[in-house]
Structure formats: C-alpha cells, structure tokens
Design goal:
heterodimer; A: alpha/beta; Rossmann fold; 5 domains; 6-stranded parallel β-sheet; 40% helix; globular; B: alpha/beta; Purple Acid Phosphatase, chain A, domain 2; 7-stranded mixed β-sheet; 19% helix
Chain lengths: 887, 232
C-alpha cells in the first residue's frame, strides 16, 4: 500500500516516537505507525491534542508537506474510540466528519488515500465522497445512511443544508475539515461556504473545525474564519499549528545567452534553454500564466523536440478525459514534462517532479512558492525552481520574487468581505431548509467572519430582494418568493421554488463556452468544399471548450491553435464550434480571458525599489542593466515613492507614458479615466494601452506642452477625484461592469442560469442582463445588485481599490520628464500598441467602420439593389426635442 | 439626431435612430413591440425584473412624440407582453399613455402577445393598416421557399438585432432590416431582447440574406451589409 500512499509517506518521517504520542494515539494507531517504521510528526500530534481538547485549529504547512492525514487523524482517532458507535445509538444520525475540498478530484483522491490505513488498522469507519458526479441513488442513500466521513465540495454542503432534514443530518456532526482553505476563502465560493459553516454551527453547536492551508500572509484571517464570531466581542481565533518550511527551495532565474525581448509573453527566446533543462531532469512541470501561453509554449517545444521527449499539455479548457490521461501518465512517471496552467496549483499528487520551470512573471511571491513547492516532495530536499522571464520587466519581477522567496515573504490577499449576491442566494437556501426568523438568521450570518460587519439594513435589503426583487416600487408583493407568516417566520411561498434554488445554486458563473468538435470534410475534391461531417462516429471528437466570445471573433476559414493542434474554424452548429485539422504557419492563437493575474502589490513595490537603487542592478543580467543605465541617461528612473510620467512626440502624434506598476487591470481603469479627462481638456487623446507596469496614452496635441503649461497640470490630471463622477459615468457604459452585473444577477437569483440543452431557446427569450442593468441604473441606483456589482468592480476586473491607493500615494509627487524621443523604459508598452486591443474607442466607431465597408461594397457593386442604401441623412433635431419636428 | 430616408416599395419613409419609422407625408409615427408590462409578466413566474420597464418605454416614446409631433401613432403589435398587461398597468403609466394619445389618432395593431385590443385604454384596434404602397402588420407574412415576400410590407415581431465586430470587440444593437421592398422593424420596448438578423428566421424573409441592416447608433443609423455582420 505504501506505493499508493505518497501522501502518507511524506507525512511520516522515521523519527523516534515522542512520548506525547503514547497519550494521544490509541494503540492500534501506534502499532500501525510502528509496523511501518514510521512515527507521527509533531504537527499531527499537536493538531490531535487541540482536537481532543475540543479546540478548532488551523494547520499551515508549505506545499508538499502533505497536511491531509494530519487533518483527518483527530476524526479517525475519535471514531476508532467509539465516537461513532456511541452516537449511533441516537435516533438522529448523520456524518461524524465533513471534509470540504475546492476540487471534486481532490475529494476523490483523498478518499482513496485514506481507505488503506483505515483498512489496515481494521477500523470500522466508512468513507464516501459526494460530488456533482455522484449518482442520484447514491446521494439519496447517503442521506438515509450517511458514512462516518463524508468528503465533498462547497456546493454539496449548500445543497445538503438547503433541505428539510438538514437538522437531523448534521446534528451529530463533530468536525469539519476544510482543505486548501487559502484557496477557498478568496472567492465568492468561500463567502457561501462561510455562511454554510455558520449554519452548521447552529445545527451542531459543539462543532470543531480544522483548516488546512498553504502559507499565507494573514493567517489570523483564516483562524477567525474557522470560528463563530459574536458582534461586539473580540475576534475569536482558532489555534494555529505551523509546519516550518522545509529546506529552502533552490530558485534561479534563467541566464540565457539569447537576447531578452523588450516585451511580449512568449519567452520564445528561451525555448532551447527550457528544453535543455527538461532533458537534464527526470520530470519537469512547466508552469505558465495563461492557456494561451500553454498552447504556444507546447507547440514551440515540440517544434524543436527532436528526441521526441514525452511532453504533454494540461489546461482547464481541454476535454476532461484528455486531462485525466495526462494526469495518469504523470503519476506513472512516463512523461518528461507537462506544460500547465494553474489547474495544477491545487492538491493532487503529481508523482516525482524534480524541476518546476515557471515561464513568464510569477505575479506573486506566495503564488510562486506554491508552484515551486510542486517539486521534490520530500521535506528534507530542496525544491528546484527555474524562472524564465519573458521580457525585461519580467526579469526584474522575477528577481523581486526570488528575493521575496528567500525572505519567506507572503503576498496572499486579505480576507474578502462577504458578497451581497451570495448572501441573497443563501437566504433563499435557508428558506428552502425551513421557515426562519429574520433576526435569528441575521445573528447566525454575522457570526461568520466574512459577514461580521454586515449591516442590518443590508441584510434587510437582501431579504427584500429575495422576497420580491427589492424594488422601491413595491409592485410584486403578491408574487413573493418568501413571505412572513402570521407566526413571524419567513417561509417559501411555493414548493417549486426549492427546485429552482437547487438548479441555480453555486457561485461559479462560467463565461458562456462552446465545445470544440473535430469534423472532416467529406467528398471534397477539386478545391470544392465537401459536406462537413463530424469525425469519430456520430459525435466527432470533442477537443475541449473555449469561450464563446473568442469563437465569435473568428470567421470560417480562420485558423487557431488549441489542444496542441492547429485547427481551422468551420462554423458553429448549435452550441459547438466545428473545426478541421489545418496546416497553417501562422494560426491566430486563442487569447483566453482566464488567468491574467495582476502583479501583486508586494512584487510591484519590489520592482520599484529595484529600479530606484542602481546598486541592486548587479544581480540583473547585463542586457537589462544596460537598458536601465541608458534610461537613466536619456530620461530618469522611476522614483520609488513618486510617479514618473514621460511625454514625447512619436510619428505624427504625442505620447505620455506613466509607470504606476499597479498591474494591468488597475492601469486599464486608469487609462479609461485619464483619456476622459484629457478629452475634456481638449488634448484630443486617441487611445491608450496598458501592461502590468506602465500605461501609454497618445493623442493629437502636444501633451508635454499642455502639462507644462498646466492645461491641465499632471497633478490635476491624476487628482483622486477621478474616482468620483468620472468613474460613475464610465461605469455606466463599461462592458466589464455589465459582465460583473450578469454574474451577480445569476448568483443572487434574479435570473436563472442557462442549463445544458436550453441554449437553443434563442436570444429573444433569454432576458438580457445588459438591459436590466440599464433600467436599474437609471431607476434604482442603490439596488442591492448594483451595490454587489460595484463591490466586485472595486476588487475584481477594474481593481479600483488598488488604483485609489496608488492615486493617494502619488498625490503631489508626480515627476514629469519631457523628452524628444521615446525612452528605453517606454519601449515595452509602446510596442504593445497594435498588438493589444486599444481601449477608449467608442462602440460607435466600430459601427461606423462596418458601415464604411458597406459603402465601399455598394460603390463596387453597381446594379445591385443597393441604391437605397446610401440613404440621405437629415438632421431632425437633438434628443431633447429642439428640432425640426417642433417647427 | 439624424434620420435616414429610404425608399420602401417606392415610398419615401424616414428611419429614426430611436428605432421608429416616421412617414413625413401622413405624419405617421410607427413603433413596434413595446412589450409593456413585461417585467410584471415575468413576476408572475417569480422572476423579479425591475418594474420600471413600462414607465421607461413610455418615456422614450414620449420623447420621440415630442420631437416628431405626429398626427398619428401606430403600434405594430406586441404592445403589451401578455393579454392581461393593460390591466396590470399602474395609474402613473396609464396617465403617461393617455398624454401620448391625446389629440392624435392612435392605433393598436394586434400582435401574437396581445391578439385582443387592450381594454379601457382607448385608441383604435386592427389587424393591419395600409399607408399608400405600404402594408403594416405585426408578423411578417410567410411565402414559398426562394420567393420574395409581398412588396411594401412593414412588420415587427422578430426584434432584429445586428452584431458587428472590430478591434477585438463586438457591438450588438437593434436594427431595421430591409431589401428595399419589405422591412422588419426593431423592437422599441426597453426590456426586449433581439434576434440576430443572421438567424434562419430572416433568411426565410430575405432569400440569401439579401438585405441591409440599419443599425441603431447613439444619434444616427449605420447601414451595414450582411457580409460585415456576425452571428451570435
């Protein structure tokens, strides 16, 4: 069994059995350890002693230390000592322990790994998983005859709680184990889970929690998350057990003989070096930041992979069967390398990896540590990591990450405040479970750390939203979903709503995806296209799925790279994109939305400090050093605590480049707001482009001259008040915000999710959330869903919070450098012009261009019935009614 | 705001960027698919859309009427989202509507959502209306495969919307669809979605997609050829 138990092997170094173990571990356990020449680790025993004393605890251990057995040991011991049999006599029964993991696959994996020691110790403990894949009959059976330990996901917990027998089912629950807690708490999924925990605690007041987490920046947040809070009282915190970092990882930055590019994210220059590193190791994990990079790098590596080393590809859009195959091959040790995105960041054992290569910037110190920790599972050997920066700025970012890693610094985010849309979903779920008293439910909800600051007024608004939509115009009272009964309890008004709730449960709203299906052309000859037939039987093989918006940009005949192949887009059939294999030298590679992490504040500060301190440049490669030296000669270096703004003419236009180092999302928001202001100042801006480090705006008037003359001054341009009215106006039109609104509307239950098979119903039937958003904004700007959307925008897609901090930091500290040429530091962002979509261009321009196409076509196609097309336009007055119509 | 004048079956009409048609000769304003009381219709199924759609749609119509001062208003069907919509209207909205109707001819053309005239609101009701060479009805009439439809037909019902991509982004807007002989109007109601003009339903009306879409912009219309349009 040892072979099937790498997790356990790591956990149990052959050290002497401490005396404490005798007292804590039952004999069967001690024998089991001893029979294998193992001994429990100190943190396992510490966690066990906390649990036995009735205390909740957080276990923090670096990746690869294997925390899982430690988490389960208290439950196994308790059950072995009769914890289960005692309570089985009770008429109420349910699971003893609940294990919650962010990944279905992880729950399944853990169940398998635990099965063996349980069997070998002869323990009569039943372990079962319950996920979205569990068949209905098994789920039903689990409700009547629950296992001792139920391994499941956050969504399943919510489903179990929103049921009439939740009280019976969870009454005897003693322990909840949260695996990968650091990953769970950073999203709306974590918000929902924290609410569910508050309900579990009410059903089983003696409940203990165990949190398992990687190293984080704010462990106290997680300790508090695990506990029930009380308003007015000091923050309750779980005990903490920390496994010290093993040997420090060996991380180095690739020193290539090749020229490091100015910009871009391909790292093509380093392909030879990457392949050489793969050759020099047994098994290598190659991490990249986006699926686009994964596809690109995989294809490029195979282009030069003359020895045909087994190198595989793994990312979240690939078909599940394909991913499982790669995972199995990896575990079996038959692969030399896997190119992967963050899908591998969590859990699951990956066999004997002896090198982790990170291509592109790490974006965060903790993120890097977790990824590098994937190599060398033995705690006494250092992990090996190699960073491959894709451009010169990334060299500095990698250097900053390396220093952060050496210092053990962490930059995981702070605990988020619970989202209001999730709250709405939870309230309905609680009504599905049983009629509730509003005050009691409020008290339960604010006992969750994520919602402890929730105001009663916001709760009331959420309650009102669930009942009748929460509109000031109270027109839907008679259709209410939940109603206050005579006994003062709120109850579901129709049983059908329970089913509706279950179908819409969850906080993950995927961007609409299309399956990619391989087809072939039958009967094609003489250059004539034949009939398109899906290959491989009736279905044709599914290669995976891509976001709908990506496919929308393709015209039949376009080629793109996906699943490691070059494909030709043939058309959309129902909800599938049909493709054929193609030979093309220059495919348009999918640029997936997912996986664009902004640079962490911590690393940004590191890069700024490095730039401001030329003595630190010794650590950088010579070509990067030269680049910075020339920058110092031609312009100035960005000061550490001020903002450098350069202006210079370029071609027939004028440019401004600012270096805030606040990440791409915040820069895009900033760019949008700056161009608005410049427009008002009649500086005639034309567009802007942003990367993680800098922002470039260009226009028709001499920006350097305007700033020097104070028309406007840079201080006025970057004045914090841009986050007021300007932001509001922009948000009104922002498609990013509309997307956020759609997610909030679905999570809160305003509109229903589209379910598989319903896609054909057509757009005119589905209600467009964009239209709802517009109506709501103009009639009820304080509606709870708009509040939720704004909160999302502040931290998510628009990163407004970070932008606000930056603006206040640099207020009155802007350094303006007027130049006659582009500066060395400005080159990377200037090179992105034309590659990245340019923002700030009105939708009207897109329409006007398409319209111009028509005029050209009409002019070229005489004799067609297009004569009416060039219709005369006549002014009929302004929208406010001062037109000819009145005369 | 700039209107676009086109010839439809020989008659000159003006397409208004608000999504309406104005016939200068008779002073007739035509709007289609108002879908009043759509939100309250959904509320009956416990989907709580903002209950402001009726007020918002009527206000938009009022602005248009203010600008055009028509002598006659034609609603081209589906004026209400369902048969009981008129009965659910609140007092303020009834007053808004009455103000619009005052002093001019007002015609409700029957639609599939509202086959019967709205009760107690006044105005005339009919299945179709003729203005010179033009026939106005809610649903475009069907015809044999490959044939062209009747000349001069102006209909609604389909909620045409056109999608245009460029610069890595796409814009989806309401649109008029016409081949110079017949025309399908966009929907006017604020909560009405749109059907892509490249949908099969339009192919049946305009063989081989032989039409031009006049896409609704902020202050003007943009004529776009099907070749420049995108499916959803």
């Amino acid at each position: 069994m040892a072979a099937s138990l790498p997790t356990l092997r790591r956990m149990t170094a052959p050290v002497l059995m401490p005396a404490a173990a005798d007292a804590l571990l039952p004999e069967r356990f001690r024998h089991w350890f001893a029979a294998r020449g193992w001994s429990p680790r100190p943190h396992q025993l510490k966690l066990l002693s906390h649990a036995r004393a009735g205390r909740s605890a957080l276990l923090i251990a670096p990746t690869g230390a294997g925390k899982t057995l430690a988490g389960f040991l208290p439950s196994l011991v308790d059950l072995a000592e009769g914890g289960s049999t005692n309570k089985r006599a009770d008429t109420f029964f349910g699971p003893h322990t609940l294990y919650v993991s962010p990944l279905k696959a992880l729950a399944v994996d853990i169940q398998r790994n635990l099965q063996s020691p349980v069997a070998e110790m002869g323990l009569e403990i039943s372990l079962e998983t319950r996920t979205g894949d569990t068949p209905a009959h098994k789920r039903q059976r689990q409700k009547l005859h629950p296992p001792d330990i139920l391994l499941t996901t956050p969504e399943q917990v919510a489903l179990l709680l929103a049921s009439r027998d939740a009280e019976r089912f969870f009454k005897r629950l003693t322990t909840v184990i949260f695996d990968e807690l650091h990953a769970l708490t950073t999203s709306k999924r974590g918000d929902l889970l924290s609410l569910d925990l508050s309900r579990l605690r009410r059903l089983a007041p003696e409940l203990q929690t165990v949190g398992l987490s990687a190293t984080v920046a704010y462990p106290d947040d997680l300790r508090a998350w695990l506990m029930g809070q009380q308003s007015g009282r000091e923050r309750q915190m779980a005990e903490i057990v920390v496994v010290p970092d093993g040997v420090k990882p060996h991380i180095s930055i690739l020193s290539s003989q090749e020229r490091i590019p100015w910009q871009g994210h391909t790292a093509r220059y380093a392909l030879g070096d990457i392949l050489a590193a793969i050759k020099a190791h047994r098994t290598t994990l190659v991490f990249v930041n986006t699926r686009w990079q994964a596809e690109m790098l995989f294809a490029e590596l195979w282009r030069i992979n003359e020895e045909a080393l087994p190198i595989a590809l793994h990312h979240g859009s690939l078909d599940r069967a394909q991913r499982r195959k790669v995972e199995a091959a990896m575990a079996a040790g038959t692969l030399r390398a896997v190119v992967a995105t963050s899908t591998l960041d969590l859990g699951i054992d990956w066999g004997d990896v002896d090198l982790v290569i990170h291509v592109g910037a790490p974006k965060g110190a903790s993120r890097l540590a977790q990824r590098i920790g994937r190599s060398n599972h033995r705690m006494d050997e250092p992990s090996q990591g190699l960073l491959v920066p894709a451009n010169r700025f990334e060299v500095m970012e990698c250097q900053a990450a390396l220093e952060a890693s050496a210092a053990g610094a962490q930059d995981t985010p702070k605990l988020r405040a619970g989202a209001l849309d999730v709250l709405c979903q939870h309230i309905l779920g609680m009504a599905v479970a049983a009629p509730f008293d509003a005050v009691e439910l409020y008290e339960e909800i604010v006992s969750a750390e994520s919602y402890r600051d929730l105001a009663w007024e916001d709760f009331e608004q959420a309650l009102d939203f669930v009942a009748t939509g929460g509109y000031a115009l109270r027109s839907y009272e008679r259709y209410a979903k939940i109603r206050k009964r005579k006994d003062g309890l709120w109850a579901l008004s129709h049983p059908r709503l329970a089913q509706q709730y279950r179908l819409n449960l969850g906080t993950i709203v995927e961007a609409p995806m299309l399956k990619v299906r391989l087809a072939s052309r039958k009967g094609a000859k003489d250059g004539k296209p034949g009939v398109l037939k899906p290959t491989g039987g009736p279905g044709g093989r599914i290669l995976g799925q891509v976001e709908e918006y990506f496919i929308e940009q393709l015209v039949p005949g376009d080629t793109f790279q996906f699943a490691g192949q070059i494909l030709r887009f043939e058309g959309i059939r129902e909800n599938e994109a049909l493709v054929t294999r193609a030979m093309s030298e220059d495919p348009a590679i999918p640029s997936y939305a997912g996986g664009k992490f902004p640079l962490s504040t911590y690393l940004a500060a590191g890069v700024r400090a490095m730039l401001a301190d030329p003595e630190s440049w010794e650590k950088l490669p010579a070509q990067v050093r030269d680049w910075l030296t020339i920058q110092r000669e031609k312009s100035v270096l960005p000061p550490q605590d001020a903002l450098l703004v350069e202006t210079f003419p370029r071609a027939d236009k004028f440019c401004m480049v600012a270096y805030p180092f606040e990440g791409r999302l915040a820069h895009q928001t900033l760019g949008m707001l700056l161009t608005r202001r410049l427009e008002r100042a009649r500086a005639r801006p034309l567009g802007f482009v942003a990367n993680d480090y800098a922002l470039a705006v260009w226009g028709l008037r001499d920006l350097g001259h305007l700033f020097s003359a104070g028309k406007p001054s840079l201080d006025a341009l970057f004045e914090e008040d841009m986050l007021g009215d300007d932001l509001e106006t922009w948000l009104a039109e922002s498609h990013l915000l509309k997307r956020s609104f759609r997610n909030c509307a679905i999570i809160a239950g305003l509109i229903e999710r589209r379910h598989p098979g319903e896609e054909k119903s057509g757009r005119q039937v589905t209600i467009s959330t964009d239209l709802i958003y517009d109506v709501l904004r103009s009639h009820e700007p304080d509606h709870i869903l708009l509040k939720a959307t704004r909160a999302d925008a502040a931290t998510g897609l628009l990163d407004i919070a970070r932008l606000g901090e930056m603006l206040s930091r640099i207020s009155g500290r802007i350094v303006h450098q007027r130049l006659s040429h582009v500066s060395p530091l400005a080159v990377p962002v200037m090179l992105e012009i034309g590659r990245e979509p340019v923002f700030g261009e009105a939708q009207e321009d897109i329409l006007a261009e398409a319209s111009d196409d028509l005029v050209r076509e009409a002019m070229g196609l005489e004799g067609q019935e297009a004569g009416f097309v060039a219709g005369r336009s006549t002014d009929i007055g302004s929208p406010d009614g001062l037109g000819r119509g009145r005369g | 705001m700039a209107e676009t004048r086109i010839r439809l079956a020989g008659r000159e009409i003006a397409l208004d960027p608000s999504g309406a048609i104005y016939d200068h000769e008779t002073g007739t304003l035509i709007v289609s698919d108002l879908h009043l009381e759509k939100a309250s219709s959904y509320a009956r199924r416990r989907v709580f859309l903002p209950p402001y759609d009726t007020a918002a749609t009527l206000s938009a119509l009022a602005r248009l009427v203010m600008r055009r001062q028509p002598t006659r208003i034609l609603c081209l069907g589906d004026s209400f989202h369902d048969g009981e919509g008129a009965a659910r209207m609140d007092g303020a909205d009834i007053a808004r509507l009455a103000a619009l109707m005052a002093g001019r001819e007002f015609v409700w053309i029957a639609g599939n959502h509202d086959p019967h005239p709205p009760a107690g609101l006044g105005g005339d009701c009919c299945e179709e209306v003729t203005i010179g060479a033009l026939t106005l009805r809610h649903e475009p009439s069907r015809h044999g495969k490959g044939e062209r439809g009747p000349a001069g037909e102006v209909a609604g019902h389909l909620h045409p919307a056109a999608k245009v991509s460029g610069r890595g982004r796409s814009v989806r807007r309401r649109a008029f669809v016409t081949d110079g002989e017949r025309l399908v109007m966009p929907s006017f109601g604020v909560l009405t979605g749109g059907l892509n003009v490249l949908d099969r339903a339009f192919l049946a009306l305009f063989p081989l997609f032989g039409f031009t879409a006049f896409v609704v912009g902020e202050n003007r219309l943009y004529p776009v050829a099907p070749a420049s349009l995108r499916p959803d």
